[in-house]
Amino acid sequence: MTTFLRKRIVSSAIPLVVVVLGVFVLARLTGNPVDLYLPLSATPEQRAAFSAANGFDQPILVQLWDYLGQVVQLDFGESLRTGQSAGEMVLEAFPATLQLAAVTMLIAIVGAVLIGSLAAYRPNSLADRTSSFLSMTAASIPDFWFAIMGVLVFGVSLGILPTSGVVGGPEVWVLPIATLLIRPFGVLVQVVRGSMVAALSAPYVKVARSKGASEPRVVFGHALRNATMPVLTVAGDLTIGLVNGAVVVETIFGWPGIGKLMIDSILQRDFAVLQAAVLLTAVTIFVLNILIDVCYALLDARVRQAVPA
Amino acid sequence: MNPLPSTATADPEAATGEPALAVENLTVDLHTPTGTVRAVDEVSFAVHKGRTLALLGESGCGKSMTALSIVGLLDPVAEVVGGSVRAGGKDVLTLSRPARKKLAGPVLSIVFQDALTALNPVQPVGRQLGEPFRIHHGLSRRQAKEKAIELMRIVGIPEPRARARSYPHQFSGGMRQRLLIAMAVALAPDVLLADEPTTALDVTVQAQIMQLLRDLQVERDMAVVLITHDLAVVAERADDVVVMYAGNVVETGPVREVFGNPRHPYTRGLLDSVPERAEKGSPLPAVAGSPPELSKIPPGCVFQARCPLARERCAEERPALTATGSGRAAACHFSEELASV
C-alpha cells in the first residue's frame, strides 16, 4: 500500500508542475494589471514604478523563475488588490467550497444508493421506470439554468429562500446544494441501478437467499458492496466536477468559496491569488484521486493484491 | 397418494416414516418473450433421510429448475403453477416468503455448481460461512466465526483459522466447492440439494468432493438430491434415480434396477452411450438428435422424435408413468418390450 501511494504521488507531481506553468502563462494573457489598477491619467513614470514594484517589468521567464522559487517555499505571493498573502486568502475561502461539495456528495450518494437499489430490485417496475425518467432528466439539466430558475421561483416569486449570501440559517444552503446536487444525483442513480441489476443477478445472491438471508441483507449486505466499484469511480469524477462546478454556483449565489475567489481574481488580474487558487484546486483533485484508489483497495481484496508490492 | 410408487425399496428400514422431501406433480412454467412454455411437467419423487436420489438428465431437461423451485430460488420469469413440495412437515409452496426463508438452511439447502461465482467475492469466506448461524441462530459475529472455522475444519480446509480471513479467489476450485458445501450443511439441513456439484472440477477433485458429500450425509443424516448428467456418479452414489427428459419424468426407481434393466428407451439410450459398455472398435452409440425445444414439445410422448421404438400411438397419446416392477415406473407405452431385450 505504501509503495502504491508513493508511486501515485510521484506520477501526479508532473501534472501539478504543468498546471503551475499553464496558469502562470494563461493568467498573463488576460491583460495587464497596470491598466486596471492605475487611473487612465497615470503618467508613464507611475506605470513603470507600479510594474517595477510588482515585478511585471521583468521578462516573463525571470518572473516565472522567481515565482517557482517562491512556490517551493510555499510562498504564493501577495494579492494585488488587498496586499494580503494569496495563500492565506485561498485557504480561507477553501472550507466554504469543501463544505458545499461534501454535503452535496453525501446527499447524492446516500440518495442514489437507496433509489438506485430500489429501482434495480424490480427491474422494469413502475418504480424503476419512474426513477429512470427522473434521474435522466436531472442528469440533463444545466446547472446555471437550474440555479437561475431556483432563484427566480423560490427567491423572487415565492420569497421563501434567500437569493444569495451565506448569512442566515440552514435555508441559505438549500439553493446552492440543490443546484450542485441535481446532476451528480441523476447520474449516480443511473449508475447504482445499472451495477445493482448486475450484482443482484449474480449467483452469490442466490446463495445468500438459499441461506435464508432477509431481502435487506441480500441487497445491502451482499449485492451493494459488489456494486460499489463503478459507483465509486463515477462518484469520484463527479466530486472533482463539483470542485470545478463551484465556480458557477458560488458566483450565482455569492458563496464565498474558492470558485468565487477564482473568478474575482481573474476579473481583477490578481495573478498571485488566481495561481494559488488553481494550484490548490489541482492539489485537491490529485488528493481525491488517491483517496478513490485507496477506497478501491479497501473495498476489494482483489485490487489490494493486484498492486505490486 | 400418487400414481408413483415409493422410490425407496432397497433398504425398507430407511423408507419408513414420512420422507424428508416429497415432491408431487410439480409443474413450472417459463414466461418468455415469445410465450409461456412448460419447463417442468408434473414431476414427483420422494427422498428419505440418509438416502440419495439422483435427478438425471441432459442440460435443459428441467432438473435444475426442479431444484430451484424446491428451494424457492426461481428467477422471476419462472413460475410454479402446480403441485406440492413437502419438507419439514410443511407444504413449502404455500408458505409466505418469510416463513419460507426460515426453512432455507435448517430444512432445505442447496449447493451450486460454480463455486467461484457462488461465493461473494468481496467478503472473507469465514464471514460467509458464519452467516447461516447469524441468520437462524442469532449468533454474534464472533460466535459465528468460530462456527465457520469449525465447518472449514470439518470439510478439510487446512489452517481454517487463518484461512477464514481469506477471500474466495484465494482458494483453489476444489477448496471453493468444499467451502460452498460447508455453507450448505452448516445447519444440518433435512434435505441437501446438490446441483452438479462437481461439474466444474478436475476428475480427482470430483471424487474427493463426492466422498465429502457422502461423509457429511452420513454424519448429519441428510436426504440428498443429486442433480447430475453423469451416469457414473449416479451409479456410484445414488440409491434411487429419477430420469428426466424435456421437463418430464420418463423413468424412476432404484438405481441398481433402473440401470440394470432400463424400461424406457431414453434411459437405455443413455446407458448404451457410456464408453465402457460399448463394443471395442465399433462407433460409440448415441441417442440420435437433440431434445425438443420447450416451445415445440409434441402432444404425444415427449421422446418420440428420438425413440427407436416410436410408432403411431406415441404421437397421439402421452404415456403415463406406470409401475414396471417393485418401486419403479416408466413412462413408455412399450416398456414391456424393453424388459425382454
Automatic annotation (TrEMBL), chain A:
Stretches assigned to the ABC transmembrane type-1 domain: 94-292
InterPro entries: MetI-like, MetI-like_sf
Pfam families assigned to the protein according to its UniProt record, in alphabetical order: BPD_transp_1 (PF00528)
Alphabetized Gene3D superfamilies for the sequence: MetI-like
Domain of life: Bacteria
Compartments, record wording: Cell membrane
PROSITE patterns in the record: ABC_TM1
Gene Ontology molecular function: any one: dipeptide transmembrane transporter activity
Membrane topology of this protein: Multi-pass membrane protein
Transmembrane segments: 12-31, 98-121, 133-161, 173-192, 271-299
GO CC annotations, alphabetized: plasma membrane
Protein keywords: Cell membrane, Membrane, Transmembrane, Transmembrane helix, Transport
Similarity field: Belongs to the binding-protein-dependent transport system permease family.
Protein name, entry field: ABC transporter permease
Source organism per UniProt: Prauserella cavernicola
UniProtKB/TrEMBL annotation, chain B:
Taxonomy, superkingdom: Bacteria
Tagged with keyword rRNA-binding: no
Domain ABC transporter: 21-271
Main location: membrane
Record-level GO BP terms: peptide transport
InterPro entries, per the entry: AAA+_ATPase, ABC_Ni/Peptide_Import, ABC_transporter-like_ATP-bd, ABC_transporter-like_CS, Oligopep_ABC_C, P-loop_NTPase
GO molecular function: ATP binding; ATP hydrolysis activity
One Gene Ontology cellular component annotation held by this UniProt entry: plasma membrane
Keywords assigned by UniProt, alphabetized: ATP-binding, Cell membrane, Membrane, Nucleotide-binding, Transport
Topology within the bilayer: Peripheral membrane protein
Subcellular location, record wording: Cell membrane
CDD domains tied to this protein: ABC_NikE_OppD_transporters (cd03257)
Entries under NCBIfam families matching the protein: oligo_HPY
Family statement: Belongs to the ABC transporter superfamily.
Database matches in PANTHER family: DIPEPTIDE TRANSPORT ATP-BINDING PROTEIN DPPD, OLIGOPEPTIDE TRANSPORT ATP-BINDING PROTEIN APPD
Protein name (record): ABC transporter ATP-binding protein
Originating organism: Prauserella cavernicola
